[in-house]
Amino acid sequence: MSHPTKRRLHLAAGVPGVNHWTIWGAPGAGSQIDFSTFEHVARTAERGFFDYFFLAEGLRVREHKGRLHELDVAGRPDNFSVLAAVAAVTEHIGLVGTASATFNEPYDLARRIASLDHLSGGRAGWNIVTSSDAFTGANFRRGGFLAYPDRYRRAAEFVELSRALWDSWSDGEPARYRYAGEFFDTEGWFPVPPGPQGHPVLVQAGDSGDGRDFAVETADVVFSRHGEPEAGRAFRTDVRARALAAGRDPESILVLPGVSVVLGDTEAEAQERARDIQFQQVTPQTAIHLLEQVWGTDLSAHDPEGPVPTPPENVEAELTQGQARRVDDPSAAARAWHAEAVEREWSIRELVVAKTTRHEFIGTPSRIAEQLDDAVQTGAADGYVLSGSVVPHGIDEFVDRVVPLLQERGVLRTSYEHPTLRENLGLGDRPRAGERRAELEGVAS
Ligand SMILES: Cc1cc2nc3c(=O)[nH]c(=O)nc-3n(C[C@H](O)[C@H](O)[C@H](O)COP(=O)(O)O)c2cc1C
């Protein structure tokens, strides 16, 4: 059956990082570091005709109250090494790795990504993040780090220079490149010929106005945290308006929020499973820990099942280091959480469950298929990045039970049409990237 007017649903699968959404203590939970985990998720996603397999990045083991963050001791290997290994056990699925534009150097990263594009036959992608804070920077720099306002300016030059490197070969030979900008002043020859995609697919994850402007200037895909259909629609509308204002066709940029899906044989069972997962995600200890992050103060003397204490008037202390801040005014955020908890008579744990866990799609397989289809047809998203709450089997059930229904609806492919990720995403030529300052001089060596 053909559905000529339907928009396609794009799907990606992530191995969830070290965070409390993953239930590491669940029966059957695997390792965060074993290759079998990455292999299983990637091959399952390929069995479900997903567009790409995705890995986030954490560049410094986080700390909470000056001690190791308990969830980070699981370990986190280098993305592009993992993706190269996954390339060997998959055939079609795209391979997208997150890498910071703040702490890498363009020549080295562009070379690693181009290498993955070759090794995988044109399936490589780079999720560009800026992740700048002094705490992470201390791992990389001798003193100093990038100031918050400068990170997207550096990222824009980083991408521009990477593109210049990927373009620097001509007639099967490297040509001399030279790039002079505010952050980079480099020249030489790039050692890797253009991969099958020319330019690997660029994904971007950043939420601020600057982040969104950077996305429409550079990226093929925006990875967002706005998975609820209404919030997703507002985000996607904003990104598309920014694209138009920047002179770019909004259809050339895909918005894929990260979401979680909970299935059940009946709606009631799905709701019950969702609630059960949420309380497993937020253990009593995690509840205290997460509230401490928001309150900025030690709460270890409080009962997680007891009432929510009044937050300090001024929340200043950053008890947790190494993760992106999500609110502009921490004191106001804490007051709002407290007011809601009092009104609803929530315990600490109930508040933290309500505020920090989410399942965007809950229901029977047919209801989920319908909701995903609707979301894409009504502009809430161009697709979704799914991650399960249990590693590595979290997306198995979705692939077994929902994927066939999506295919029946005509919104999901029944075979991979093209060899490259860029083509499978339906993306045309790469987006233009600002004004190029690179000079490419063809110099015979
Ligand atoms: C959906 C999403 C995923 C992100 N994933 C990562 C990641 O894997 N690693 C990382 O260092 N930063 C990650 N970031 C953080 C961003 O790089 C950035 O530092 C943060 O969003 C603040 O930038 P903004 O003010 O533009 O949003 C992510 C951000 C978003 C919105």
TrEMBL record:
Alphabetized CDD domains for the sequence: Nitrilotriacetate_monoxgenase
Give the record's keywords alphabetically: Flavoprotein, FMN, Monooxygenase, Oxidoreductase
Q: Cross-referenced InterPro entries, in alphabetical order?
A: Diverse_substr_monoxygenases, Luciferase-like_dom, Luciferase-like_sf, NTA_MOA
Q: Where is the composition biased (Basic and acidic residues)?
A: 429-445
Luciferase-like domain residues are: 25-380
- Cite the residue spans of the region called Disordered: 423-445
Entry GO MF terms: monooxygenase activity
Q: Which family does it belong to?
A: Belongs to the NtaA/SnaA/DszA monooxygenase family.
Q: What name has this protein been given in UniProt?
A: NtaA/DmoA family FMN-dependent monooxygenase
Organism from which the protein derives:
Agromyces allii
- What broad taxonomic lineage does this protein's source fall under? Bacteria, Bacillati, Actinomycetota, Actinomycetes, Micrococcales
